[in-house]
């Protein structure tokens, strides 16, 4: 990380620290700010289209076959809705992990991309899963987060800075991931497939059945889906099912068998095997532990 990037991100950290308790102001900028003061286990999270930033500390993110530990030297773009396993693995010298997630608007991404000069015929390479900050991007993000200090400026400056941040993202090596997600000729089938899986999580989906539902061949859907999400459609579905099953056991109090059936598992042993691989323990034991943590957190 260059000194310039580090200095810009320090400004962003200062702005975020001053306004951690002001979620309404953060939401006006499309931000979610989080402070954690102890490492966490891996947890299921569903990321909507967003730019994720670790400002202090380090986290672990598992997206498909990509299992990475990262901190403020990188950023993560999730251009479409993605089921992710993630957790805090390291705190900073003050014993804190600070992060910010900024909502990406596909309409604005399309608008900015359309106004940019593009190299005719260029075929972008598949980028790394994590992006590397540039001084220009870090500066734009720091100024956007700086609007937390001046809420009266948000209506005028936020739309301008939003477009600048998107522009700077499109000038990084992550541009292909953003562009694939917003160009309908490339991603329309992926977006429709994601919507179909989310809307009917319990259906007995196969790659062929999903391809037929979105008007695509199995091979094209598999290739495009992996390019955008980093996982196969069926791996994506498994993550969705396990996350929803966990929610049903913890929040609704369902048994492992009830939750497994509700999300489309036909075999209890298959469900238990997948669940243990994802969460490191049995469904029942995990649900009991999570409920206990929630009780102690609200006590």
What are the salient characteristics of this protein?
five-stranded antiparallel sheet; 3 domains; 299 residues; alpha+beta; Jelly Rolls; transcription
Beta fraction: 15-25%
CATH superfamily of the largest domain, please?
Answer: Jelly Rolls
SSE series: HHEEEEEEEEHEHHHHHHHHHH
Give the helix proportion (percent range): 40-55%
The CATH top-level class label of the largest domain: Mainly Beta
Reported CATH architecture of the largest domain: Sandwich
User: How far is the first residue's CA from the last residue's CA?
Assistant: 42 Å
Provide a descriptive summary of the structure in words.
With 299 residues, this protein is of the alpha+beta class. Helices cover 53% and strands 17% of the residues. It has a five-stranded antiparallel beta sheet. A four-stranded antiparallel beta sheet has the order 2-7-4-5, with helices on one face. Strand 4 and strand 5 form a beta hairpin.
Question: Helices and strands in order, then pairings?
Answer:
Elements: H1 3-18, H2 23-28, E1 31-36, E2 43-47, E3 50-56, E4 58-63, E5 66-70, E6 74-78, E7 82-90, E8 97-103, H3 106-115, E9 131-132, H4 135-146, H5 154-170, H6 175-182, H7 184-199, H8 207-214, H9 218-229, H10 233-251, H11 256-262, H12 268-279, H13 283-298
Antiparallel strand pairs: 1-8, 2-7, 3-6, 3-8, 4-5, 4-7, 6-9
In short:
This protein is an alpha+beta fold and 299 residues long. It has 13 helices and nine strands. 53% of the residues lie in helices and 17% in strands.
């Amino acid at each position: 990380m260059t000194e310039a990037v580090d200095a810009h991100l320090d400004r962003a950290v200062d702005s975020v620290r001053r306004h951690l308790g002001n979620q309404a102001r953060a939401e006006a900028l499309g931000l979610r700010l989080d402070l954690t003061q102890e490492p966490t286990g891996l947890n299921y999270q569903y990321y909507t289209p967003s730019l994720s930033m670790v400002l202090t500390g380090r986290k672990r993110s598992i997206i498909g076959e990509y299992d990475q530990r990262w901190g403020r030297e990188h950023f993560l773009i999730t251009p479409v809705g993605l089921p992710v396993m993630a957790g805090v693995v390291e705190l900073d010298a003050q014993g804190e992990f600070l992060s910010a997630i900024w909502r990406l608007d596909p309409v604005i991404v399309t608008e900015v991309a359309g106004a940019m000069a593009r190299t005719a015929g260029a075929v972008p390479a598949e980028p790394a899963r994590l992006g590397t900050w540039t001084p220009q991007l870090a500066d734009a993000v720091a100024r956007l987060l700086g609007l937390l200090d001046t809420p009266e400026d948000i209506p005028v400056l936020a739309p301008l800075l939003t477009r600048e941040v998107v522009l700077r993202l499109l000038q990084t090596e992550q541009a292909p991931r953003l562009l694939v997600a917003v160009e309908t000729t490339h991603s329309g089938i992926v977006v429709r497939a994601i919507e179909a899986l989310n809307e009917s999580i319990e259906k007995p989906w196969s790659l062929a059945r999903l391809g037929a539902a979105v008007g695509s061949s199995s091979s094209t859907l598999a290739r495009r889906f992996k390019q955008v999400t980093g996982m196969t459609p069926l791996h994506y579905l498994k993550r969705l099912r396990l996350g929803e099953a966990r929610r049903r056991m913890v929040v609704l109090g369902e048994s492992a068998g009830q939750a497994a059936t509700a999300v489309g598992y036909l075999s209890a042993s298959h469900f238990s095997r997948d669940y243990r691989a994802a969460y490191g323990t049995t469904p029942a034991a995990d649900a009991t532990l999570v409920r206990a943590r929630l009780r102690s957190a609200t006590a």
